[in-house]
Amino acid sequence: MPATMHDVAALARVSVKTVSNYFNGYPYMRAETRARIERAVDELGYRLNVTARSLRRGSTGMISLIVPELDQAYFAELAQEVIDVAATFGLTVLVETTSGDRDRELEALSGLHRQLIDGAIFDPLALGPSDAPQLGGGLPLVILGERQFEGLADHVLIADEEVAHRAVSHLVEIGRRRILLLGAGSPGTHTAILRRRGSEAALAEAGLPVDGDLVVSTDGWTRDAGAAATARALDDGRRFDAVFGFNDALALGAQWVLLERGLAVPGDVAVIGVDDTRDARFAHPTLTTMSPGRAQIARRAVELLVSRIREPETENGFASVTADFELIVRDSTVAPGTLNSTP
Amino acid sequence: MPATMHDVAALARVSVKTVSNYFNGYPYMRAETRARIERAVDELGYRLNVTARSLRRGSTGMISLIVPELDQAYFAELAQEVIDVAATFGLTVLVETTSGDRDRELEALSGLHRQLIDGAIFDPLALGPSDAPQLGGGLPLVILGERQFEGLADHVLIADEEVAHRAVSHLVEIGRRRILLLGAGSPGTHTAILRRRGSEAALAEAGLPVDGDLVVSTDGWTRDAGAAATARALDDGRRFDAVFGFNDALALGAQWVLLERGLAVPGDVAVIGVDDTRDARFAHPTLTTMSPGRAQIARRAVELLVSRIREPETENGFASVTADFELIVRDSTVAPGTLNSTP
DNA sequence: TTGTAAGCGTTATCAA
DNA sequence: TTGATAACGCTTACAA
Fold it and tell me: Taking CB atoms and an 8 Å cutoff, what residues of chain B touch A283?
């Protein structure tokens, strides 16, 4: 049975209030009192009981990060960043995975863990605007990526249309004309719709047609799904000289199949993704990608959440910040040694 | 202000104890009482306060998983498995990352989060046997991978020597003679030492010499480190026809550099790893690897931890279970179409 | 600057 | 089968 604050107080010959003050950084305390407390704490090996504190305070110092799955590089890397940033605020992160399942997303927001956390950072996959009423009921919430809930919670957004536009423009600039849009297609998440819209705008600006045959759905945004869809497109005899994977996983799956089929990347088909995961750097050839500023996303998300937790009553609207993005050109679009033919 | 158990009790016209019984699956209850409680719960939207329960029970229903970093595929995939298995036991997982830093490993075991958890699953990187006294002081603990603490906690082990032996034997069977051991070398974790030992045993059995030049240290077990060390070995003019990366990340880093330098895999150099991460399946060429039975590891770890939490006083020694492993042959050692020349 | 005492929302003891 | 009541260990008015 571990020592309690009462034990410390008794040994230090002060009241529990004073010991509590000590642990809460209350400044007005005689140096000698402080020293006595410190000695007692050492002697007893005392550690503050966080559960009791939480019960009394009504807050836990924990936030959850709700993502589809950890074994996708993007989410694993995001989780690591969020954990690190949260730690600088003294917050502990509970990582919840949902497999993109609607019920599990709702459960993460309003289930048993609900009262274990002071707020949540949520990367929704299945939930849509019609679920808005169930969005945690007063739980401080920051939504990542999706803009469907704007006005209902704080958001950290990716400029989906612009990112897609830039990616497709890059492919056009290196001379590609028939670009497979991998991850678009019905029904499609809101993110998918926006990235498709941006892609088609870039094609239109370049005076290129949008070929419905080259707008391809995938069953999820994983390497498996990207590989399968690309294989199908090749088997169908569709012709394309570039692939825009709506995330890195899709692009890597596509690239894998292309190489497997003996096609040259980027010689025959150029490939570009989105996310700048570590996997992109270590693909062979290395994958050109749009970096969404993951570190910035994690930082802003935690900051927004912390201020929402501290001042829940700021009813004058919710914040939406959009992260910066950047084109990272690698070998999957511009072969090394090739002089970039960009005008 | 959310409803409490008292509110429910009042509305259902029973005592709080009865409501508590209801939530704890106490079987002796009249159907009508149960129905009244259920109606009151619904009406009030009542949810059990986990913090209060934890305070009263002295346990939280949370366990932590302590790993070096989530953005390594192996750990991300392991975390996902552990979270899923733990959920079947009604346990919540707190994922702690340490960067393999000694202080952070100790902090995860005995810091503030210590009392937030009922036990921990720990994949140590920096801590050694000399830290044993600090191993959580009575915290139920299951250690993964490392056998250095055997006798001090429960273990779920990988058969490091046998795994390495099998990997090297496979390379020998396909005719390789000069095998780079990537990840061995001083100082080296205990795991590294065992895998090196197993590798050298396999070489010895095959009548092959152990060339010190081919035993290569890396700065961590990441793709970056694997790439850097392999590049160095090539630059030094060391000759080898195979690489055994002590994990998939190292092997993938090596493979990446080899391809970058224009060498053929497996034509010039065969590559094999350990872990069977998803990355291995999507490398190009696909990476041959030793599967350590990750699902089994996660399941056994959680099971051991749960029984240790339930019966902390089983002082008659600690359990050590060793996971099964399996060789997964892919294209990085046996090119597709090549008839396997194994005797 | 420090002390007293009343909760926070459960669960456990014991009795009925 | 259910009820009254005392903890669990901390924070926080309020008092001194």
Answer: 284
Over residues A200-229, the pLDDT tens digits come to 999 999 999 999 999 999 998 999 999 999
pLDDT of residue B178: 97
Yes or no: say if B66 and B111 are a contact pair by the CB < 8 Å rule: no
Contacts of A28 (CB under 8 A, 6+ apart): none
**Who among A48, A114, A260 is closest to B47 (CB)?**
A114
Structure tokens at A224: 């498996």
**CB–CB of B52 and A52 under 8 A?**
no
Domains of chain B: 1-46 (1.10.260.40), 58-158+294-312 (3.40.50.2300), 160-291 (3.40.50.2300)
Count other Cβ atoms within 10 Å, centred on residue A337: 6
Q: Specify the pLDDT at position B112.
A: 79
Within 8 A by CB and 6+ apart from A264, the residues are none
The stretches in chain B having pLDDT less than 70 are: 1, 133, 136, 185-187, 312-316, 337-343
- State the Cα–Cα distance between residues B127 and B119, nearest whole angstrom: 18
Residues A94-106 have pLDDT tens digits of: 999 998 899 999 9
Question: Nucleotides on strand C with an atom closer than 7 A to protein CB?
Answer: 1-5, 7-13
Q: Does A132 touch chain B (CB under 8 A)?
A: no
Q: Hey, what are B35's tokens?
A: 């129905």
Structure tokens at B297: 């590891």
Nearest-CA neighbor of A247 among A229, A265, A267? Answer: A229
Instruction: DSSP for B129-183, please give it.
Output: GGGGGGS-TT--EEEEE--TTBTTBEEEEE-HHHHHHHHHHHHHHTT---EEEET
Distance between CA atoms of residues A210 and B313, nearest Å: 69
Measured at the CA of A56, the angle between CA A55 and CA A61, to 5 degrees, comes to 65
Interatomic separation, CA of residue B13 and C1' of nucleotide C16, rounded (Å): 18
> Cβ atoms within 10 A of the Cβ of B316, count?
5
Nearest nucleotide to B58, CA against C1' atoms? D8
Q: Do A80 and B73 touch (CB under 8 A)?
A: no
* Helices marked H in chain A: 5-12, 16-23, 31-44, 50-57, 73-88, 102-110, 160-173, 190-205, 223-235, 248-260, 278-281, 294-310
Q: Which residues pair with A245 in a beta bridge?
A: A182
Q: Which residue has the tokens 């309690």?
A: A4
Q: Is the CB of A4 under 7 A from strand D?
A: yes
| A17 Cβ nearer than 7 Å to chain C strand | yes
The pLDDT, as a whole number, for residue A25 is 82
Establish if A204 touches chain B: CB-CB under 8 angstroms. Answer: no
Distance from CA of B257 to the nearest CA of A (A): 9
> Rounded to whole angstroms, how far apart are CA atoms A274 and B56?
48
The percentage of chain B sitting over the pLDDT mark of 70, rounded to a whole number, equals 94
**Regions of chain A short of the pLDDT cut 70:** 1, 133, 136, 185-187, 312-316, 337-343
Q: Is the CB of A52 under 7 A from strand D?
A: yes
> What is the DSSP secondary structure assignment for residue A24, as one 8-state letter?
T
Q: Which residues of B touch A255 (CB under 8 A)?
A: 284
User: Is A10 within 7 A of strand D by CB distance?
Assistant: no
Tell which residue, A280, A197, A293, A287, has the closest CA to residue A242: A287
In angstroms, how far is D7 C1' from B56 CA?
8
Q: Report the C-alpha gap between A289 and B258 in whole angstroms.
A: 23
Contact criterion met (CB < 8 Å) for A80 and B60: no
Per the prediction, chain A carries an average pLDDT of 90
> What pLDDT is attached to residue B338?
57
- Spatial distance from the CA of B119 to the C1' of C4 (Å): 37
Contact A51/B115, CB-based, under 8 Å? yes
